[in-house]
Design a protein that fits this description.
The complex is a heterodimer of chains A (about 375) and B (about 280). Chain A folds into two domains: about 10-140 and about 275-345, Response regulator (Rossmann fold); about 145-270, Response regulator (Rossmann fold). Chain A is built from 14 helices and 14 strands. Chain A has helices at about 5-25, 45-60, 80-90, 105-115, 140-145, 150-155, 170-185, 205-215, 225-235, 240, 250-260, 280-290, 300-320, 325-330, and strands spanning about 25-35, 70-75, 95-100, 120, 135, 160-165, 190-195, 215-220, 245, 265-270, 335-340, 340-345, 350-360, 365-375. In chain A, strands 6, 7, 8, 9, 10, 11, 12, 13 and 14 form a nine-stranded mixed sheet that branches. A five-stranded parallel sheet of chain A has the order 2-1-3-4-5, sandwiched between helices. The longest helix of chain A has 21 residues, at about 5-25. Chain B has helices at about 1-30, 35-55, 60-80, 90-110, 135-155, 160-170, 170-175, 180-200, 215-225, 230-250, 255-270; strands at about 125, 130-135. The longest helix of chain B has 29 residues, at about 1-30. Chain B is mainly alpha-helical and about 280 residues long. Chain B has one domain. In chain B, β1 and β2 (about 130-135) form a beta hairpin. Chain B contains eleven helices and two strands; from the N terminus they run ααααββααααααα. Classes of the chains: A alpha/beta (about 375), B mainly alpha (about 280). The interface of A and B includes residues 201 and 297 of A. Chain A: It comes from Leisingera daeponensis. Chain A: Belongs to the leucine-binding protein family. Chain A: This is Substrate-binding domain-containing protein.
């Protein structure tokens, strides 16, 4: 390499460094996203949504008047590694708050590592029952997704015999424990309950049991590829004629895998769908498409939750006047903020939000009902 | 109940036998432990995605599938695999790398998300008093005919003998006039094409995404461990035992016990009868 080129590059590097310094924000926020692992599919939409939120926060004055900058880390890894990655952002890069989308095992590891010293917003759908200093939760819990929806479907679809099927871990089991009470309250009965290991990729025997049970509704808490495989076979056997399906983690990607042919009478309950027809949701979708193009990773409830998390962090820190955990914990109860999901309130450290019921028939979610201000039955003492 | 269980068994066994066929040829005949086998199933399953994204008519799915898989397999055979014949452990590592490469390539082209494929025949028909998906019935019949033809051809053809000679003593095989380069490339590409075809056939009934191949590699491997290498009968027996155990236990007990039994069987066979039930002389 010639000397002049080296000089040029060196000065370019200095300019770049200076440029970064002058644009450097006052507050760094760590965003923990699943770039790898089973939830890796949601990495890109999570990053995009978080970036949009940061733009929005900075445009409206930042957090307590200071601009924010996002620093990302991959947490689609085992809990110990994820905690290490978060620690690097915290102590290494100086992140002053965290927003995370990852599984519950990683969450517990992070709670241990943070020790209540840094605010941490956990955003995905989860089973509930997690409280800690500095922890705020925006994700839907089973009570929110089911309490309004099961009575609604009982009435509109006239169903009463429920079959519960899920993967064998705590989220499906906790969801179904609650579902049983809502089904009983709505006058229905549970005609079968089944948990399958993650390694199973064919569901023929489960489908046969559903058929014989005479179920007219199936509550699905299978996740990802398992949910796709189950739903494809379900329709293949013509069971969509016998029973409606309700899923609490069937988002846009999963529906794309299930396909239009296999989605007849498949309902999904969530706090977000890309097809929500409110002004806020439509403008969010427009911003997303403008920033990342029409080929961008599809918007979905998981990826979009990073936006919710950052907006809560900003609203709460502004209300508390600082990013200090004690001040934020004291100010947390009753914090309100508006997002594409609707008007939200923090109660018991969980997010009371609008819950949407969408019908996936035809391969695209069509919102058929919305329930405003649904609070979680989870509540953490303040 | 029993007729659906019987049809489920027929479906599971026939599809597993088809998926495992390619692995049996490549592993059993060429002594290449092809860890990228599942990725060829995956590429085959993406064939309908290719045709629909290019706006091609549905009947082109089969030629597009075979052409894509054959091209990929041939390129890999000429550049990497041919150096590894008879080196089982080296081939395992190399093909594991190839598997990762193929997954990443498909992810780059089609993205990480799920794809869906419509079956050419939809709806259910009544068979033996049970409503069963018409497409599955057609596939079961098709695979049975295919295997019967393969068995008939295999019994008459000298290709299998030539391959055995080639792997056993390549120099001597060359000396007696066997074109080993062509023969080995042909066997590898044929094995991969059957995997691709299996993927195409299964596509309307499964999830389709870049990581799907692993499931099929593992189940195929179990079938070969139990059935033994080197014969079509062994393949059929292995597929029958593995798919049968999973289906029957899954139906009468639970899926967890079914999977547990499959793992236990595979371990017992590897330990006590490493050549499987029907093994050809090595």
């Amino acid at each position: 390499m010639s000397k002049s080129t080296t000089k040029l590059l060196a000065s370019a590097a200095v300019a770049l460094a200076l440029g970064t310094v002058s644009a450097t924000a006052d507050i760094k926020i760590g965003v923990l996203v699943p770039d790898s692992g089973p939830a890796g599919l949601f990495g890109p939409s999570t990053r995009n949504s978080a970036t949009l939120a940061a733009k929005k926060i900075n445009a409206s004055g930042g957090i307590n008047g200071e601009q924010i900058e996002l620093v990302f880390a991959d947490v689609g890894v085992p809990p110990a590694e994820a905690a290490q990655a978060a620690l690097r952002l915290w102590k290494g890069e100086g992140a002053q708050a965290f927003v995370g989308l990852h599984d519950s095992a990683v969450r517990e590891a992070l709670i241990g590592r943070f020790g209540g010293q840094v605010p941490y917003v956990y955003t995905p759908v989860y089973e509930g029952n997690s409280c800690a200093d500095g922890l705020y939760i925006t994700g839907e819990t089973p009570s929110q997704q089911l309490a309004p929806v099961i009575p609604h479907l009982t009435e509109t679809e006239g169903v009463s015999k429920w079959y519960l099927i899920g993967h064998d871990y705590n989220w499906p089991r906790d969801t179904n424990a609650l579902a049983k009470t809502y089904i009983a309250d709505a006058g229905g009965e549970v005609v079968g309950e089944e948990y399958v290991p993650f390694t199973v990729s064919e569901f023929d025997s489960s489908l046969q049991r559903i058929k014989e049970s005479g179920a007219d509704a199936v509550l699905i808490t299978l996740v990802g590829g398992g949910s796709v495989g189950f739903n494809v076979s379900f329709a293949g056997f013509g069971l969509d004629e016998q029973a409606i399906r309700l899923g609490t983690l069937i988002e846009e990607n999963t529906l794309a895998g299930i396909g239009a042919d296999n989605a007849n009478r498949l309902y999904s309950s969530s706090g977000y769908f890309s097809s929500i027809e409110s002004e806020a949701a439509a403008s969010f979708a427009t911003d997303y498409a403008e920033a990342y193009g029409t080929d961008a990773p599809a918007l979905n409830g998981l990826g979009q939750s990073a936006y919710e998390g950052l907006m809560l962090l900003a609203a709460l820190a502004n209300k508390a006047g600082s990013l200090d955990v004690a001040a934020m914990d004291a100010a947390a109860e009753g914090t309100t903020w508006s997002t594409p999901r609707g008007d939200n309130t923090l109660t018991g450290r969980h997010m009371a939000q609008t819950i949407y019921l969408a019908d996936g028939s035809g391969g695209a979610f069509n919102i058929v009902a919305s329930f405003e201000g649904v609070a979680s039955s989870e509540a953490c003492a303040n | 109940m029993s007729s659906v269980l019987f049809l489920n068994l027929a479906w599971q066994i026939s599809t597993l036998a088809l998926v495992a066929l390619g692995l049996a040829i490549v592993f059993g005949k060429l002594r290449i432990m092809n860890m990228a086998h599942g990725e060829f199933v995956m590429i085959g399953a993406y064939a309908p995605v290719i045709t629909s994204s290019m706006g091609l008519p549905g009947w082109l799915q089969v030629p597009v599938c075979l052409l894509t898989v054959a091209l990929v397999a041939f390129a890999l055979e000429r550049t990497i695999i041919r150096h590894l014949y008879g080196r089982m452990f080296d081939s395992l590592l190399a093909t594991w790398g190839i598997a990762i490469l193929l997954r990443e390539a498909v992810e780059l082209i089609f993205g990480r998300g799920y794809q869906s494929v419509s079956p050419p025949i939809s709806g259910t028909i009544s068979v033996l008093g049970a409503d069963y998906p018409a497409y599955r019935i057609a596939v079961i019949i098709g695979i049975s005919i295919g295997f019967a033809a393969l068995y008939w051809w295999n019994a008459r053809s000298k290709v299998a003998t030539r391959i055995k000679a080639m792997v056993g003593n390549p120099d001597l095989a060359e000396a007696v006039g066997i074109n080993t380069a062509r023969l080995s490339a042909g066997a590898f590409v044929f094995g991969c094409c059957t995997a691709g075809l299996a993927g195409l056939i299964l596509a309307p009934t499964i999830r389709i995404e870049p990581m799907m191949g692993l499931d099929y590699l593992i189940r195929s491997f179990f079938a070969l461990v139990v059935g033994g290498l080197g014969s079509l009968e062994g393949l059929g027996i292995g597929a029958g035992i593995i798919a049968g155990t999973q289906s029957v236990l899954g139906a009468v007990a639970s899926q967890t016990y079914g999977y547990l039994a499959v793992l236990t069987l595979s371990i017992l066979f590897l330990w006590l009868k490493p050549d499987g039930i029907r093994s050809s002389s090595r």
